[in-house]
Amino acid sequence: MTEKVDYEYALDGSNVINHMRKGDDGKSAAHIVVARLDSAISVFKNLGVGCKIFLDEATLQQAKKGKRPLVGSLEDLQSLIDENNIETIHHDGPMAMFAIKNKIPIVTNDQFKGWISGKTKIKQEGVTPEDWKNLGEQKIGFKFAKNSDEIIIDTKIQSKSTISKEPKTKVLEGSNYLDHIRSRLQSLDDRTQSQTTKINNINSILQDLSSLVKDLGTSGTNSNSSALIPCKFEDEFGQSHLCLLGENLHIWQDGKWIEIEIGGNTKLLD
Questions:
Q1: What is the architecture of the domain spanning 9-160?
Q2: Where are the domains of the chain?
Q3: Would you list the DSSP string of 132-145?
Q4: Residues 6+ apart with CB under 8 A from 118
Q5: Helix, strand, coil percentages, rounded to 5, for the chain
Q6: Most CB atoms closer than 10 Å: which of 33, 94, 201, 255?
């Protein structure tokens, strides 16, 4: 399965690889310089940004058929095409459509004058002269080092780690930021303390209940403890007491069990 690539730029490979230079006869002519395309590819790889590269089919055929001087080998050119997923096109229309669709700039020195004016006969469906004008305005140019095939691209291209992205959250600055952090930490501490208190209260209740049952079991009552039912009793003063109901009513009060015979007398359990 081919790995999905997020492209941030489109490169006009034909514009990069073609260069006017003197031939053996001393006359200037357009040459196809493989090293120039290789240099451009290396720049984008080193920056860590995705760049979709396009190359005119006419340029490739001129190199293969020897109709234009080739600086470098045809094998090296074909390797660059294969290894970097370079798309060969018959005119600049598909390249423009790709850039428009993905909302990315084109790296080229082409002015697109024929496309903008409408003089170029071949038209790309869905790409208007206004689109070409916009692409021309946002294009990123390049140059080569003097007497070298090392490309120098406009400084507007940045490495992937520095490409500006819309922040997901707004970062607070200065003392307000620190105050915000302190407030969040204090709120977290308060919630933790509250939960700890609740857990301690529950543990205390469980321990008290365990002690009450144990005390009742070891007391002198003759009641059948397996038949006792836990309940709550509220006296005339509005105070609630833990009770166990069996043959008689057992109320825990002042650290001791008080047994109240149902319909009878009250006695203290030892």
A1: 3-Layer(aba) Sandwich (3.40)
A2: 9-160, 205-270
A3: HHHHHHH-B-EEE-
A4: 129
A5: 40, 20, 35
A6: 33
